[in-house]
Amino acid sequence: MRRIGRLLLPRRPLQRKCCETEVEVADCNVDVIREAIDCMRAQGVDVVCGRWLIDGSPNVVLFALNSSYWRLDSWKKEFWEATHIGSPPHDSETNDAILFGFLVTWFIGEVRSRMYGDARCVAHFHEWMAGVAAILLRVRHIDVATVFTTHATLLGRYLCAGSADFYNNLPYFNCDVEAGNRQIYHRYCVERAAAQSAHVFTTVSQITADEAEHLLKRRPDVVLPNGLNVVKFSALHEFQNLHALSKEKIHSFVRGHFHGHYDFDLDKTLYCFIAGRYEYRNKGADMFVESLCRLNQKMKQEKSDVTVVAFMIFPAKTSSFNVDSLKGQAAAKQLSEVVTEIKNSVGSRMFEEALRGRMPDPDELLTSKDVIKLKRCIYSLQRSHLPPVVTHNMVDDASDPILNQLRTVQLFNHRSDRVKVIFHPEFLSSTNPLFAMDYEEFVRGCHMGVFPSYYEPWGYTPEI
User: Fold this and answer.
1) Residue 359 in contact with residue 309, Cβ under 8 Å?
2) Tell me, what's the pLDDT at 108?
3) What pLDDT band is residue 463 in, cutting at 50, 70 and 90?
4) Three-state SS across 352-370?
5) Which residues contact 135 (CB under 8 A, 6 or more apart)?
6) pTM confidence score
7) Dist. CA 255–CA 265, nearest whole Å
8) 294 forms bridges with which residues in the sheet?
């Protein structure tokens, strides 16, 4: 990210599917940037410029990595000669990081060469996947000040996922050996080189600063804690209204998901969730599922009339939406439309009878046609199998850790279960045809979020 005058310009890889719904494409009105983009386009790079449709609508430049894939081998060779950091040929994530790094360096170089006078340029890079550009800017001696921020170290994530006693042994890890054993040595080298080469190295918490000092061999110059925008939630009555509106949207999804087994009272239903990267142990998904199992047993023993619906929002590899999930939402929507139609016709008949000065006869309000429509919808909602615990078809269902643990503890959404589970292996979005809610809106509608992370670089988790 860099600032030209008063322009803050994020740069990201271009993903066409996301771009169509998240970016308002427009030409850049800053001459040096427009000329740099035109120069790259003239050499075959697919570049999109516009406004990112988030709060503040920042300018954004997106690079299509596949338009430069033919340059990958030569760029990897150049990167090796300059840094002696190699990369396996089939590591697609590292390949993308190298492509993105060279494209960003190219772009910044073009912009910088067109800036005159005492103009200054700062490039801010986040995480190892953007670190290639931070390294290249120093190697090529481009006159740009660089800042590298790590929100969590790559090696730290892998060590915690491998059940290491991470925090007690932090000063004693042999980083090269540990990274090599986990086959991420090349990625670790990129992250470490980016931290070492940046003019300013920052992180987001004191605990991550300690981690970076031992694993990346540089103490961060600045600790800038993660922030939350709490201003928008300052008015309690407004927050309560938004909670009610968002909860009703979750109600609508739950009605469709549990059709045929919808025998619980939504007024006595609590929604809780866990979300984040799909790091099964690091994010505490194992502890969350085990807790749900114990809660379910306790509630059944006490014959509670409360229902808990637990959502697990972790992006995983999927092939498609679960047909049963889509069918449930469609059936619930059809029933809602039929009931609305019948309600309008009944209201119209009541109005006509009352206008004539007569009390409507309850037996005449529902016509035989209305009854048939309603019965068809009700019968279509019946199903003999249990509601799905996952909303998508998983690529590797048999080895998915959450699904395997749900099988072990037998949380299958039985009628008798007081705890119902829904695993949504995709980040939430208002454009999702199955569960059309943004994450922020979903959080507002829930009653509780549960984050039992072991590895918590944010630094907000209480120490035990």
Assistant:
1) no
2) 95
3) very low
4) HHHHCCCCCCHHHHCCHHH
5) 82, 83, 101, 190, 193, 194, 197
6) 0.74
7) 11
8) none
Q: How far is CA 355 from CA 131, 282, 413, in A?
A: 75, 67, 49
Q: How high is the mean pLDDT of the chain?
A: 88
How many angstroms separate the CA atoms of 430 and 122, rounded? 34
CB 218 within 8 A of CB 212: yes
Q: HSE (CB half, 13 Å, CA atoms) of 436?
A: 5
User: What residues does 393 pair with on adjacent strands?
Assistant: 320
Instruction: State the amino acid at position 196 in one-letter form.
Output: Q
Q: Are 207 and 160 in contact (CB under 8 A)?
A: no
Q: How far apart are CA 84 and CA 72, in angstroms?
A: 16
Angle 168-172-174 from CA coordinates, rounded to 5°: 130
Residues contacting 143, CB < 8 A, separation 6+: 112, 121
pLDDT tens per residue, range 98-151:
999 999 999 999 999 998 878 889 999 999 999 999 999 999 999 999 999 999
Give residue for tokens 């993105």: 100
Residue appearing with tokens 């800042």: 147
